[in-house]
Specification:
Number of strands: 6
Number of domains: 1
Strand content: 25-35%
Largest sheet: 4 strands, antiparallel
Shape: globular
CATH architecture: 2-Layer Sandwich
Structural class: alpha+beta
CATH class: Alpha Beta
Radius of gyration: 16 Å
CATH superfamily: RRM (RNA recognition motif) domain
CATH topology: Alpha-Beta Plaits
Distance between the termini: 45 Å
């Protein structure tokens, strides 16, 4: 299951999140989302782990404190389709035109 972890401090590391979730089961992957331009963390991450461990982690970690911040932990939702009709690849091509 893919888990969303929000309201993280900008200094949180993959290792720190892996250690936080490890007591609930095997952590397959941790992805801290960063800004493309600055490389700085955006304050949220995704953790991938087995369903049983994920359910325990969500119930026990949601609303808990990490680095003096109350974190949000829940099942990740699929990214919604863009409804404004834009296409990022096409937008980039338009910007590159001579």
């Amino acid at each position: 299951m893919r888990i969303y972890v929000g309201n993280l401090s900008y200094s949180v590391s993959r290792e720190q999140l892996a250690q936080l979730f490890a007591p609930f089961g095997e952590v397959a992957e941790v992805h801290v989302v960063t800004d493309r331009q600055t490389g700085r963390a955006k304050g949220f991450a995704f953790v991938e782990m087995d369903d049983a461990g994920a359910a325990k982690a969500i119930s026990q970690l949601n609303g808990s404190a990490l680095d003096d911040r109350t974190i949000t932990v829940n099942e990740a939702q699929p990214r919604p389709e863009r409804t404004d009709g834009s296409n990022r690849d096409n937008d980039r091509e338009r910007q590159r035109r001579w």
